[in-house]
Amino acid sequence: MILLFFIFGLCMGSFYNVLAIRIPAGESLFTRSHCTACSRVLNAADLVPVFSYILLRGRCRYCGSRISGIYPAGELFTGLGFAACYVLFGFDIMLPIGLGIVSAASILSVRYLTKGAPSR
């Protein structure tokens, strides 16, 4: 079960990266993922959380530009956080609360690291 929570967290972390980066930039959440340098649409093999980054050595498959390490860091943080919540709480009422806190922390951390602190 821990592995399932970890994998689920990796996938959710990938989605949270999209939320944290696209919403402040005014981009749509419903467009396909693309390279920020060459705008080429990424295929499914390029989007496997953490593992694609490692296999591609942190570079775009198409143009070779560097991919920010924030993407796999956000995914890994969320995956580890989800697994830790399961270890700490099991299937208790505290589990969804813990997952929500990890989710919010992940989104806010990636937002802060990519765009800086939100202005007032």
Automatic annotation (TrEMBL):
This chain belongs to which protein, by name? Type 4 prepilin-like proteins leader peptide-processing enzyme
Provide the taxonomic classification.
Answer: Bacteria, Bacillati, Bacillota, Clostridia, Koleobacterales
* Any one GO BP annotation for this protein: signal peptide processing
Recorded hits in InterPro entries, A to Z, give: Prepilin_pept_A24_N, Prepilin_peptidase/N-MTase
Q: Name one GO molecular function term.
A: aspartic-type endopeptidase activity
Prepilin peptidase A24 N-terminal domain: from which residue to which, for each copy? 7-88
Give the stretches traversing the membrane: 68-89, 95-114
> Which superkingdom?
Bacteria
GO CC annotations on file: plasma membrane
